[in-house]
């Protein structure tokens, strides 16, 4: 497998992004650094975001687009969500039935470009074997909200052995 397509795509993103940006991207309305306007990104491995955070893993498609990452293995259920544009007090995490719900909202406020307000709601269907009472959330210094819950121990299925009795008679009777 070749890394060439991934590297070419990353290089082309430097030129496409200013012209074909997604209007619904979570960075919509954010200011640009001067070097983002004048020259392409200088490194494929570490790129400062508009907010000034350094994210060496930004080349991953999910992290670059602001899409959350959900993992569920035999030990835990985990969600990583980029919420860098929200303060901790502007975020709410709750469990509603079998769903994990994350809300973020900040009221209209002024910035260097005018006024802006943001709001989002993400709902994640949790597996049945997740311990919802043990759900924890952590917000990293670079604005990634991590939600984790351990899986419940699987109960062994009840089983019983059925004894075999021999009848000493044929199952099919001759005609």
Brief characterization of the structure:
The chain is built from three helices and nine strands; from the N terminus they run H-H-E-E-H-E-E-E-E-E-E-E. It has 175 residues and is an alpha+beta fold.
Q: Would you write up a description of this structure?
A:
It is a single chain. This protein is 13% helix and 33% strand. The chain has 175 residues and is an alpha+beta fold. The chain has one domain (3-150): Immunoglobulin-like (Sandwich). The strands form 3 sheets. Strands 3-4-9-8 form a 4-stranded antiparallel beta sheet, with no helix packed on it. Strands 5-6-7 form a 3-stranded antiparallel beta sheet, with no helix packed on it. It has a two-stranded antiparallel ribbon with strand order 1-2. The longest helix has 13 residues, at 4-16. Mean pLDDT is 75; it is low at 18-24, 38-53 and 55-65. One of its GO terms (molecular function) is metal ion binding. Keywords: Metal-binding, Stress response, Zinc. Belongs to the small heat shock protein (HSP20) family. One of its GO terms (biological process) is response to heat.
Labels describing this entry:
single chain, 175 residues, alpha+beta, Immunoglobulin-like, four-stranded antiparallel β-sheet, three-stranded antiparallel β-sheet, 3 helices, elongated
The name of the CATH topology is: Immunoglobulin-like
Percentage of β-strand residues: 25-35%
* Secondary structural class: alpha+beta
Order of helices and strands, N to C? Answer: HHEEHEEEEEEE
Helix content: 10-25%
The strand order across the widest sheet is 3-4-9-8
Number of helices: 3
In total, the number of strands is 9
CATH architecture: Sandwich
